[in-house]
Records
---
Amino acid sequence: MVSIGTSHARSNQLPASSYQLLGSRIPDPGPAHARTHVFQPSCYSPQVLRSIVGVVAGYLVFGAPAAVLFPLTGRDPHAQAPPTFLIWTTMYGMVFAAAGGYAAAAIAPRKPRVHAAIVGALIAVGAVASLVAAPSDARWSQLAALFLMAPAAAAGGMLRRRHG
């Protein structure tokens, strides 16, 4: 119960400038314009924003080239493909996954391997979601993303850690 004291007639009442909350006295902070400290949630701190931007940018470094590759080649990533195309696109994906992990680690230098691992986890989650949502006989691109590209993103973060 919150009560605001308005007179000093009784000893259990507080002055008008104080609040009573569960028996504790809390001083009145005064008018809003007199306060000098503005509460800023921690989610707006520069480190948190760099973490978010780093992970999003890292995933885009991986995802944008993949989104461009298949339409340019005219191939469906969920269809059978010749072995040379499988090898080439898997290596292509691994390079850009590593670059994405590296980018995440560079943008968010506090705990760079964690940010790169988050990019790898997003790649893995996307691969699993694709496997579950559209099961087909040709699972090569999803399995390559899950077992080769996701770890490559984490390796990109380790590479950045060594060179950073």
---
Amino acid sequence: MKKSLILFAAIVMVAGFSTTAMAQMTATDNASTTAEILAPLTLTKTADMNFGKISIVPAGAGGTVILAPATGVVSLGTAVGTEVFIVPASGALAASFDATGELSTDYTIVLTGFPLTVTSGLNTMVVSAPVSSPAAGLQTLDGAGLATITLGGTLTLAASQASGVYTNAADATVTINY
């Protein structure tokens, strides 16, 4: 019994003097949460693209005319000699779109649908090289959340292009997004 008592005393002493110190450290903090809902981004066409009236010399080699988006002015691109003529004040007009959205917010302009074909009966021409003002890519809405986007391009006339009114329903597409 003496051995049991000594063993018990030893166990109590070891247990009493060998307490494990367990330090516990805790840190906490809070994060706030934010979500911003932007005003809807809208795009409304206000004018269609119109290259105006163009004349080509019979048996001419053809060429191109360019509709500038910022000014709506049509100018000669490529032509052999003086075979392509632009009739002044004949209704040339860049396509135009009004954009609305969040004040002073960045948006992107994307131009699609080119090259596109305009037709008059069985005759065709091609509109290519779309150019917008402001330029396609990243832009910023003004302080009122507004922007006007105009669209031009290059019209290619074939040699001896047939006369007629050439149209295309709606393939020239301007897309904007935040």
